[in-house]
Design a protein that fits this description.
Protein name: Glycoside hydrolase family 5 domain-containing protein
Order of helices and strands: HHEHHHEHHEHEHEHEHHEHEHHHHH
GO biological process, one term: glucan catabolic process
Largest sheet: 8 strands, parallel, barrel
Number of strands: 8
Keywords: Glycosidase, Hydrolase
Structural class: alpha/beta
CATH superfamily of the largest domain: Glycosidases
Number of helices: 18
CATH architecture of the largest domain: Alpha-Beta Barrel
Number of domains: 2
Pfam families: Cellulase
Helix content: 40-55%
Strand content: 5-15%
Strand order of the largest sheet: 1-2-3-4-5-6-7-8
CATH topology of the largest domain: TIM Barrel
Family: Belongs to the glycosyl hydrolase 5 (cellulase A) family.
Shape: globular
Length: about 500
C-alpha cells in the first residue's frame, strides 16, 4: 500500500468531505471556502520538485556542470531515474504527520513549468527544456498526489510557479544556472508561462483546499513586470472566478505592488519574502537587534503596506537564519539559538498582527543540522514554537452569549456616535456583528482544525454583497458601520471562544 493510500484510509473519516475532482466552482462562502480565506500558517516544501542543491544535494550526483539547477540535472546521467527517485522519497508519512501535528495548516509547493509537460507537452515548445520531456513527464501526477495527500490531512496547498521559461531571475532555482534573466527575451517564454498558468488555474481552482496559485516566484523587477501581471491575471480570470486567490511576488518593490494589489477588485494577494541574512547591513546586527528593528521600524512599514494591499499580503518565505557574522564572537551554539529564537518570535508576532499568513522556508534539509533554514531543526531547538497553529477552539459558547456581546457592542457604538455627530445607519451594525461572529465560528470549528479568518477585507466584500442582496438595500455610506460590526463580532468570538 502506497503512502497516499495509507493516509487516505487513516484520515478519511476525520477529514472534510469533498471530491478531489468535482468540487464546487466557484466556492460559496462557507466551510469549503475556509481553506482560502483563513489565516495561513504554512511551511514551504522546498527542493521537492524545483531543486536547490543547498537543500537537497543527492539529486545532483550525476548533474552536468555547474550542477546547480534542474537543467543541469536533466542534462546529466540517469536524470529520469534520479529525479523520480527523489520525487518519490523526499516526503514520507512522517513528514506529513509532523507538519500537521505542529499546527501548520498549509504548505507551499514550488514547481516549474517543465513539471507540467506530461499533460501539457506544448509547454516546452521553444524553451531550454524542450529536449527533456521524457525526463519530467511523470512529475505532474506526483504533484497531484501531493495535493491530494495534503487535502486528506486538512492542509491547504499554495502552488508556486518557481521557475518559468527562460528564467525570471538570475538564481539557479529559476531552473537554469547561467545567471541570466531570459524570461523577456523570447515570445515562446511568455507563451509557455501563459499556457502553464492557465492550465494550473483551470486544474486547481476546482479543489477547495488549494488556497491559491502564485503566478511567478521572485521575478526580477523591470518596466515590463506590472503590465505582464495585469495581462496574465486577466488571462487567468477569463477561465477561473474572481474568488480564486492569485498570488503575485512583490519583486522586492513591496509598496509599489501593494498599491497594485489594493487597486484590484478580485482576490489577488501580494507575496513578500523576508530575510535578514544576506546584506552587509544584516551582518552587522545580532538577532536581538534584528528583532528590535522588526518590532519598531519594519512593523510600521509592513502595516502601511498591508493597508495599501487591503490586507491581502502574506510572507511567502521567511526563516530563522542569521549570517554567522551576526553573532558575537565565540558564543556557544545555545546562545546562537537564543538569538534565533528572539528573531523568530518578533517575526511571528508581526506576521500574526499585520499579514494574512506566512510560509517558513523551508521544511527540511537533506544533510546536516541547520536550525536557521530547516523548520524541523528549528522546532527541535525550540526556535519555532512547539505549536504554531494559534489559539485553540473551546467549543460553541453557551446560549445567549452572542446576543449579550452583540448588545454591548451595539450600545457602545450607538452611544459613541450619538455624542460625535451621529452615523449614517446604526441599524446595520448589529447584522454585521452577527455575521462576523457566525463566520468566525465557522473558521474556528472547521473539520481541518481551528483557524481564524485571515483575508478579512476580501471575505467581508462578498458578505456585504450577500447582505445587500438579501435585504434589497444598498449600504452606501453605512458600509463602514456594517464592517465595524463585522470586525467586532469576529474579535468578540475569538476572545470568548479560544484559549
Amino acid at each position: 500500500m502506497g503512502l497516499f493510500d495509507k493516509l487516505k484510509d487513516q484520515f478519511q473519516s476525520s477529514s472534510p468531505s469533498y471530491d478531489f475532482h468535482t468540487s464546487t466552482h466557484p466556492l460559496p462562502l462557507g466551510p469549503n471556502a475556509v481553506f482560502r480565506y483563513r489565516y495561513q500558517r504554512g511551511v514551504n516544501l522546498g527542493s521537492w520538485f524545483t531543486l536547490e542543491r543547498w537543500i537537497a544535494s543527492h539529486p545532483f550526483r550525476n548533474a552536468h556542470q555547474p550542477g546547480q539547477s534542474d537543467f543541469d540535472v536533466a542534462s546529466g546521467r540517469d536524470a529520469k531515474k534520479v529525479l523520480e527517485e527523489h520525487w518519490d522519497t523526499w516526503m514520507n508519512e512522517g513528514d506529513w504527520r509532523w507538519i500537521k501535528e505542529k499546527g501548520f495548516n498549509s504548505v507551499r509547493i514550488p514547481i516549474s513549468y517543465y513539471h507540467l509537460c506530461g499533460p501539457l507537452p506544448e509547454v516546452l515548445k521553444g524553451t531550454e527544456f524542450e529536449p527533456y520531456h521524457h525526463i519530467f513527464e511523470g512529475a505532474w501526477g506526483r504533484i497531484k498526489q501531493a495535493i491530494e495527500m495534503a487535502g486528506y490531512l486538512g492542509l491547504g496547498v499554495l502552488i508556486d510557479l518557481h521557475a518559468a521559461a527562460g528564467a525570471q531571475n538570475a538564481d539557479a532555482h529559476s531552473g537554469l544556472s547561467n545567471g541570466k534573466v531570459g524570461f523577456w527575451d523570447k515570445h515562446s517564454n511568455l507563451a509557455s508561462t501563459s499556457l502553464a498558468l492557465r492550465f494550473l488555474a483551470s486544474e486547481l481552482s476546482r479543489i477547495p483546499h488549494v488556497v491559491g496559485l502564485e503566478v511567478l516566484n521572485e521575478p526580477a523587477n523591470n518596466s515590463k513586470l506590472q503590465g505582464w501581471y495585469r495581462t496574465i491575471l486577466d488571462e487567468i480570470r477569463s477561465i477561473v472566478p474572481v474568488d480564486f486567490p492569485l498570488y503575485i511576488s512583490d519583486a522586492w518593490d513591496t509598496q509599489h505592488y501593494a498599491n497594485f494589489v489594493g487597486g484590484r477588485d478580485d482576490f489577488v494577494v501580494l507575496d513578500h519574502h523576508l530575510y535578514r541574512c544576506f546584506t552587509d547591513q544584516d551582518r552587522q546586527k545580532d538577532g536581538y537587534t534584528h528583532a528590535h528593528d522588526i518590532r519598531s521600524g519594519f512593523k510600521n512599514t509592513l502595516s502601511g503596506q498591508s493597508d495599501s494591499a487591503k490586507g491581502n499580503i502574506i510572507i511567502g518565505e521567511w526563516s530563522a537564519s542569521l549570517d554567522p557574522h551576526s553573532f558575537p564572537p565565540n558564543i556557544p551554539d545555545t546562545e546562537k539559538d537564543a538569538h534565533r529564537r528572539e528573531f523568530v518570535k518578533a517575526q511571528l508576532e508581526l506576521f500574526e498582527e499585520k499579514t494574512a499568513g506566512y510560509w517558513f522556508w523551508t521544511y527540511k534539509k537533506q544533510d546536516g543540522w541547520d536550525a536557521g533554514w530547516s523548520a524541523k531543526d528549528a522546532a527541535r531547538a525550540e526556535i519555532l514554537p512547539q505549536w504554531i497553529g494559534g489559539k485553540r477552539f473551546k467549543g460553541d459558547p453557551p446560549v445567549g452569549v452572542k446576543d449579550s456581546e452583540m448588545k454591548g457592542a451595539y450600545d457602545a457604538h450607538t452611544s459613541y456616535w450619538a455624542s460625535h455627530g451621529g452615523s449614517p445607519d446604526p441599524t446595520v451594525f448589529a447584522p454585521g456583528f452577527s455575521q462576523g461572529w457566525d463566520d468566525s465560528l465557522t473558521f474556528l470549528s472547521h473539520p481541518s482544525g481551528p483557524s481564524r479568518l485571515g483575508f478579512t477585507d476580501q471575505w467581508m466584500k462578498s458578505r456585504k454583497i450577500e447582505f445587500e442582496n438579501y435585504t434589497n438595500k444598498k449600504l452606501g455610506k453605512a458600509t463602514w458601520e456594517w464592517e465595524h460590526g463585522f470586525r467586532q463580532g469576529v474579535e468578540a468570538s475569538l476572545r470568548i471562544c479560544t484559549y
